[in-house]
Amino acid sequence: MATITVDGQDIQIGDAERLNVIQAADRAGVAIPFYCWHPGLSVVASCRMCLVETGTKNKDTGEITMMPKLVPACQTPAKDGTVVVTNSEKVRANQNFVQEGILLDHPVDCPICDQAGECWLQDYYFNHGHQERRADVRPFTSKRREMGPHVTLFADRCVMCSRCVRFTREVSGGGELQIIDRGSHAEIDIFPGYPLDDKMSGNTNDICPVGALCSTDFLYEQRVWFMEPHDSVCTRCSTGCSVQFHVNNDQLYRIQPRYNPNVNDWWMCDLGRYENGHVRAPERIGSIKQRAADKFTDHLWPEGLKAIHEALAGVAAKSGGAKLAFVLSPYLTCEEAYLLASYARKTAPDTLLVLGKVPVVGQDEKFKSGFTVRAERCPNRRGVEEVIRHFQATIVDWAGLLTKLDAGELAGVYLTANYPDQWTDDAEAAKFERLSLLVVHDILPSALARKAHFIVPGAASVEKDGSYVNHAGLIQTGEWGIRPAEGGHVDGQSFSDLLGRKGLYQASGVLAELAGAVPFFARAADGVPEAGLNLVTGEEKRPRTTALGTVTHPLPTFRSIASEMLEVE
Amino acid sequence: MKPDDKQIKWVKEPKLGLSGRMYLGPLLDGLATTARHMLSTARGDGMTCQFPEERPKFGNPLIYRGVHRLNKDEQGRVKCVACFLCATACPAHCIDIIGTQSPWEDREKYPQSFVIDELRCIYCGMCEEACPVDAIELTALFDLTGASREEMIFDKEKLLSVYDATIEQEPMRSRQGAGGQGHSAS
Q: Least packed by Cβ within 10 Å: which of A171, A213, A290, A504?
């Protein structure tokens, strides 16, 4: 164990840990301010904000020898006997000067800046800044420019930390961004004709400590302090990145990655981040509908589910359970799949369970850091497969279902979908025409839904609690952020009602039940930790819960500062 | 600002003296005020008036907290930069803003829609305090009436028209921060 002294306080760090002084001080509860350092990027030590006094302690004599000059904490490894002083007059003076230097040509347009409220410069100003301006230099301004389809640059707000430049070189690997010109005229820019348009461009907005890079899609949509974060899982591909949904007034405004060393580190792709138009699409299905000829009529929930239950039981009684199929979409959570499969078995012991269509788009796209956007565009194929395997010896996939339909082996189908994009076409829908009962459980109208005898509204991932198993067998749990679209219920509630269970659906309870029933999920019996749980290997890294290393900034936010002030009377 | 900031001055309630604790002095003080008001009413320059035939006189209409107005800049455009600080400060949650990119060269953001529910408002003046560009101000219009609830929900145009109606009697209180740029004051 190495012993490090931070502001007179001794802390121990493990021998295998390779921490810098910022991280070591964080363990001691001391926040060293920084702009350019990011745990996921290389060290440049260019912002000079983290300069501290360091020295070494002689183990035998206890004598401390300090370095004559300040050194960057981000670039100094914490090793046995390192002494760090972060609160001396010299260190504070440097922090003041750095803040003053940045603010010389930084426009104080916080009222109209989207970063306000989560801006590092703004927060550090309260802790390390000057109260008044000593120089009045007209700030250098440069009009806003588009860096790419999702990234807008406000060059005058940039503090030249070069995080975004290093990101495109080291993580996404595209190298689109660069610093042009020199000195006070330095600017972030792209090469003409080569915009920042890869699938990871949105991350540059997150890692920008100030308001220089802003998300074009989120620009002026909402002030950040109005939004509440909800931890969840991205459902756009089988990587299953840990994300945060930022919501307010039942609206999803923004999706940001959440640090998880087991899955996505600090990053996520633009697909998961921006493609969420389906959540509040005007055409969302909002109530249970029944078709008579070409006309759909709305049902109330209890009557609608009762009618569907009776219709399904009718088919099972008339044609036999083997002619009734339940299609479990890979967009369902594990809990929902378990409830629906249980219901299928309750309806008739020999019903057919089918794995829903698994959308595959192109090839896996792997970036320089190893971050991968997978071709399999659904969150939970593995989880649903394991649930089906528990109830049924073989897994019938979508192609298998179509073959059975062509052969006329089925009389009724309960089909869950919940795909965020259009997923089927008229040709596929025509195959379902001969069925005597088709129930489509989906969020958006489709060619298939028009052929259905019953339509049940589904819920998008941001609207429901539940767990997903990613490509590697890692189970992660997400919590709901907004309520389902008007008139809708969460899927788990619908299935729970169909099963005849009383009361509100609770995902955590169903997961415990699932873990008891299906051996594959046994490890999740006591719940799923924040960073997920690998159901196959049982191994996972548990990140230390510290704000350092996440994309969120390390200082108290606007809201917590305000509540702190209110508590002190 | 933190609670232990040197710039904060903490004030304590003063201790009552002997006469204060006997209540006699303050009681006489109060009676004297009543008597003074009775005399001034008899003279005809009292505190009460025959509203609505007679309009009340304000000591200083500039500090009265009545109906809101949205101020205009030199070019007649809305001064508001849609920063949402008024909506953040509002304890009644009666301000609803939709901000968007401005159509003007020299301004970045402006309110596409700015709606105040005058029935929900408690006229505390926090919005005026919070505004960094002095765009929202409370006027001395106090006798606001309407035939329906919808009529009392003021949109941007209506709030700007309050500005036109009151700017003669009540000039803008300051001229800081055009366009939300902190530096442009220089």
A: A504
Phi, psi of A121 (to 5 degrees): -60, -45
**Domain contains B2:** no
Q: What is the CATH number of the domain that holds A340?
A: 3.40.50.740
Q: In sequence order, what DSSP letters do the residues of chain B get, joined into one string?
A: --TT-TT-----PPPP-HHHHH-HHHHHHHHHHHHHHHHHHHHT--S---TTTSPPPPS-GGG---SEEE-B-TTSSB------HHHHH-TT--EEEEEEE-SSTT-SEEEEEEEEETTT-----HHHHH-TTS-EEE-S------SSTGGGEE-HHHHHHHHHHHTTTS--S----GGG-GGGG-
Give the model confidence (pLDDT) of A485-512 as tens digits.
888 999 999 999 999 999 999 999 999 9
Considering the domain architecture, whether residues B86 and B167 belong to the same structural domain is answered as: yes
pLDDT in tens, A235-245: 999 999 999 99
Positive or negative: CA dihedral B80, B109, A219, B98: positive
What is the rounded average pLDDT of the residues A376-404? 95
For A8-40, write each residue's pLDDT tens digit.
999 998 888 888 999 888 888 888 899 999 988
**Average model confidence (pLDDT) across chain A:** 90
Sign of CA dihedral B13, B19, B24, B25: negative
Q: Can you give the residue range of the structural domain that contains A65?
A: 2-87
Domain hosting B33: range is 23-55
Which of A67, A87, A107 is the last residue in one of the domains?
A: A87
The answer to whether residue B134 sits within a structural domain is yes
Size of interface A-B (CB pairs under 8 A): 48
**Are residues B148 and B129 part of one domain?**
yes
- Based on the fold, state whether residues B91 and B117 are members of the same structural domain: yes
Q: Please tell me the distance from the alpha carbon of residue A350 to that of residue A345, in angstroms, as a whole number.
A: 7
CB contact under 8 Å between B1 and A126, yes or no, is yes
Q: Closest-CA residue in chain A for B112?
A: A220
Q: Is residue B6 part of a domain?
A: no
CATH code: domain of residue A16: 3.10.20.740
Which tens digits make up the pLDDT trace of B81-119?
999 999 999 999 999 999 999 999 888 899 999 999 999
> How far apart are the C-alpha atoms of A107 and A263, rounded to whole Å?
38
| Nearest of A465, A472, A457 to residue A536 by alpha carbon | A472
Q: Three-state SS for A382? A: helix
Residue A457 lies in a domain: yes
| Inter-chain CB proximity B132 and A111 less than 8 Å | yes
Residue A73 lies in a domain: yes
How many Cβ atoms sit within 10 Å of the Cβ of residue A569? 5
Q: Which of A34, A63, A87 is the last residue in one of the domains?
A: A87
Domain presence at residue A439: yes
| Cross-chain residue pair B108–A144, CB shorter than 8 Å | yes
Would an 8 Å CB–CB cutoff place B85 in contact with chain A?
yes
B100 to chain A, any CB pair closer than 8 A? The answer is yes
